[in-house]
Amino acid sequence: MRTAGKLLSHIIVREVPQIIKEGVSSLAIDNFIEAKMREVSLKPECKGYKGYQYATCVSINDVLVHGVPSNKVILKDGDLVKIDVVASYKSYCVDMARYFFVGKPSKTAEKLMQVAENALNKAIDQARVGNRVRDISTAVEKEVETEGFGVVRDFAGHGVGKYIHEAPEIPNFRTENKGPILQIGMTLAIEPMITEKDAAVYIDSDGWTARTKDGGLAGHIEDTVLVTEEGPEVLTRLGD
Ligand code: MF3
Ligand code: CO
After folding, report:
1. Fewer Cβ within 10 Å of end Cβ, the chain: N or C?
2. How many Å lie between the centroid of ligand 2 and the Cα of residue 28?
3. pLDDT tens, 118-171?
4. Which three-class secondary structure state does DSSP give residue 110?
5. Which residues share a beta bridge with 188?
């Protein structure tokens, strides 16, 4: 998973920015990422998952998650682009999402994604032995609500490892259920999903694309984190 995380974050952080520009289709982005993954023996785990046909999810503006790559979706100036990828190396998966702006973003888009990023970092800091899953959830909710944005309740983070989705479920809001106690060796996909206005989302007629009902912007960012004796180790970052 460590290897998968290093290889995937290199592609997403170092190579993807060069193709994010006006006029490029979300399918071209997907093809680019899949080719880069195969070059370094990363398997695109989304492909074939519940019938999904692409290596990545490319979710733009009001699309929160699971945006389906298409040659009809063309990047335009000011777009907020979230890219979500699951990659495995020798059968072990990591799950990661990052955001990009096409040209100059709106102040709102910038603020939304800064809050999503801050929420992710505060949540990761809770991924410590002895804490509960709920401590992660609470950290996200607190950060997002303090800043006046919406917390999506329809999707959650999750354990990740041999499979994309493993126990435990990691909601982005505080629940009655404290969830399990975190232990050394657990690997968690932590993924705040937030909205500019109302947190309600719906799934498009394609059966995948999740959009805000009110058409407001949606934010998503994700890392895979290993719980270690010394604290959280983020596997999907380059660390330099
Ligand atoms: N990152 C996605 C998630 O956690 C991975 C599965 S969605 C699919 O929901 F696109 F691959 F199907
Ligand atoms: Co995920």
Report:
1. C
2. 22
3. 999 999 999 999 999 999 999 999 999 999 999 999 999 999 999 999 999 999
4. helix
5. 159, 225
Task: Tell me: cis bond preceding 168? Omega within 30 of 0 counts.
Answer: yes
Cα 158 to ligand 2 centroid, rounded to whole Å: 6
List the CATH number of the domain containing 178: 3.90.230.10
- Tell me the two tokens of residue 239: 């660390």
Number of domains comprising the chain: 1
Q: Which ligand is nearest to the CA of 57?
A: 1
Cα torsion 79, 218, 204, 20 to 10°: value is 30
> Residue 101 sits in which domain range?
2-234
Q: Which residue has the tokens 């998952």?
A: 49
Is residue 70 situated within a structural domain? Answer: yes
Ligand 1: which of 33, 53, 84 to mutate, judged by most atoms within 8 Å of the beta carbon? 84
For residues 70 and 77, what is the distance between their CA atoms, to the nearest angstrom?
18
Pocket of ligand 1 (CB under 6 A): 46, 49-50, 52, 57, 66, 84, 86, 95, 164
Q: How far is CA 40 from CA 7, 37, 88, in A?
A: 7, 6, 11
Measure CA 70 to chain center. 19
Which numbered atom of ligand 1 lies nearest the CA of 158? 4
How do residues 30-73 score in pLDDT, each as one tens digit? 999 999 999 999 999 999 999 999 999 999 999 999 999 999 99
pLDDT digits (tens, 9 = 90+) for 69-83: 999 999 999 999 999
Question: Is 240 within a domain?
Answer: no
Alpha carbon distance 193, 188 (integer Å): 15
